[in-house]
């Protein structure tokens, strides 16, 4: 049976205190019981206004899944073989869907609605610390990589479109990343409520749709320029493990599960299943279309970044590159929310519903963004770090969920 998340804050404390006082003082206060109920209803409505509908929550979830990983799917199909790669992608989507539902179920079993909380319920304090560290590492490095990609991509496109010299101020990646940080990522990351990013996530998905359309438009002209080898459509190739890594990275969204779950109005397991199924199905549909269109165009010549296959004098694809940078910038805040939440929950608050002061909130956010900016301008090669990041992140998801599921089965074997 699905249940809703218990919400405890200063408002519920006041109501509980007033109700206790009423019981102690007798009928003179009992006459105000209806007024207390009305006050409680008003406060609950105010809390719900801060949350979002199922479609908007799905936009945030889909954006976190397909924001940056989709352009690597054609290369994954090349690595694994086209036919087997499609089956692998379907399997990864199914496993992701199941594990996301299992995570929220684990939260209800343990009564802990944070990623670190359910890890602590399964493995104790060491599990809490390990999860906190890893949950911080993945989105933080992802934010750094987003800045690197935006800096490199926008710089190259700007030089092409505006004919700037390489010595121009706005042809320097450090300046490009700084401008994007100040005017895009900082304002979005300063929000407290992830529900406010839903419309931004929808815009990101519109950008993804245009990029996909551009790939289909260029399919015929690019195929005519390439020679297709005989083994291009082989069912299975040898590099299956790297392909699984690329696909898993594309569907990696577990670290922001409870942030999005908590943003849903009157969240429950049943509502979460709807959001999860809709988000994973949509994400799978988009990724498989990217994979098929990209691989059908370039087959064995497909690069890890699909957009790198296209010429830099192709204005349509240059515009798509800019839109991809926009998509990454609009995915960045979701990762920042996760990093900030880990810091606040680990060091500043024990209640997942409690809020830090504005001063602390802004200070932590600006510090995180500043660190990712400094690291991103210090390097333009994060390949090894990202591979380690993917490996680390996958090591602690299933044991925790399965342990909590086993605990539940001990009490409810059916």
UniProtKB/TrEMBL annotation:
GO terms for molecular function: L-amino acid transmembrane transporter activity. It is found in: Membrane. It is a multi-pass membrane protein. Residues 51-388 form the Amino acid transporter transmembrane domain. The keyword Transport applies. Its main location: membrane. Pfam families: Aa_trans. Keywords: Amino-acid transport, Membrane, Transmembrane, Transmembrane helix, Transport. The keyword Transport applies. InterPro entries: AA_transpt_TM. Putative sodium-dependent amino acid/proton antiporter. PANTHER family: AMINO ACID TRANSPORTER (PTHR22950), SODIUM-COUPLED NEUTRAL AMINO ACID TRANSPORTER 11-RELATED (PTHR22950:SF458). This is Putative sodium-coupled neutral amino acid transporter 11.
């Amino acid at each position: 049976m699905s249940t809703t998340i218990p919400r405890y804050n200063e408002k519920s404390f006041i109501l509980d205190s007033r109700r206790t006082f009423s019981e102690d003082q007798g009928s003179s206060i009992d006459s105000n019981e209806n007024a207390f109920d009305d006050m409680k209803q008003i406060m609950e409505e105010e809390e719900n206004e801060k949350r979002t509908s199922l479609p908007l929550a799905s936009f945030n979830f889909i954006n976190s899944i397909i924001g940056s990983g989709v352009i690597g799917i054609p290369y994954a199909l090349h690595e694994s073989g086209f036919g087997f790669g499609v089956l692998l992608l379907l399997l990864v989507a199914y496993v992701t869907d199941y594990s996301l539902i299992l995570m929220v179920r684990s939260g209800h079993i343990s009564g802990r609605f944070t990623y670190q909380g359910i890890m602590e319920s399964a493995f104790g304090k060491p599990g809490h610390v390990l999860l906190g560290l890893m949950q911080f590492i993945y989105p933080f490095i992802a934010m750094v990589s987003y800045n690197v990609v935006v800096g490199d991509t926008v710089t190259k496109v700007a030089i092409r479109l505006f004919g700037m010299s390489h010595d121009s101020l706005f042809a320097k990646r450090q300046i490009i990343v700084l401008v994007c940080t100040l005017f895009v990522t900082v304002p979005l990351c300063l929000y407290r409520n992830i529900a406010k990013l839903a419309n931004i996530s929808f815009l990101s998905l519109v950008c993804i749709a245009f990029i996909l359309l551009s790939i289909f438009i260029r399919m015929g002209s690019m195929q005519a320029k390439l020679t297709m080898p005989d083994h291009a459509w082989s069912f299975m190739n040898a590099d299956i493990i790297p392909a699984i890594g690329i696909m898993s990275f594309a569907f990696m969204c577990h670290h922001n599960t409870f942030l999005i779950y908590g943003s849903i109005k009157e969240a429950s397991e049943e509502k979460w299943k709807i959001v999860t199924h809709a988000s994973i199905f949509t994400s799978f549909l988009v990724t498989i279309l990217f994979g098929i269109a990209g691989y059908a165009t370039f087959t064995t010549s497909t690069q890890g970044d699909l957009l790198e296959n296209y010429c830099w004098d192709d204005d349509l694809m240059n515009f798509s590159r800019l839109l991809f940078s926009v998509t990454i910038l609009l995915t960045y805040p979701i990762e920042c929310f996760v990093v900030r939440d880990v810091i606040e929950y680990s060091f500043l608050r024990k209640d997942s519903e409690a809020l830090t002061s504005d001063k602390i909130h802004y200070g932590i956010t600006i510090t995180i963004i500043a660190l990712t900016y400094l690291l991103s301008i210090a390097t333009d090669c994060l390949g090894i770090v990202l591979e380690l990041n993917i490996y680390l992140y996958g090591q602690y998801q299933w044991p925790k969920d399965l342990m909590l599921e086993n605990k539940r089965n001990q009490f409810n074997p059916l």
